[in-house]
Amino acid sequence: MRLDRRDGKPGYLKHGPRCWGLLQRSLSQPACARLRDFLDAHVPEEMRRNPPPG
Q: Of the candidates 13, 29, 37, 39, which lies 20 to 30 Å from 46 by C-alpha distance?
């Protein structure tokens, strides 16, 4: 998001959905339990995606 809004590089946003999907898949692994717990406590599901254009 910073690269889009601050630096004027909206092309980077196309990678967001893939990255969020990879993260979600990785969080199902036992080794990522602490990270999953942190995200569940501090980052709501609805925020785990690209921000709306603006």
A: 29
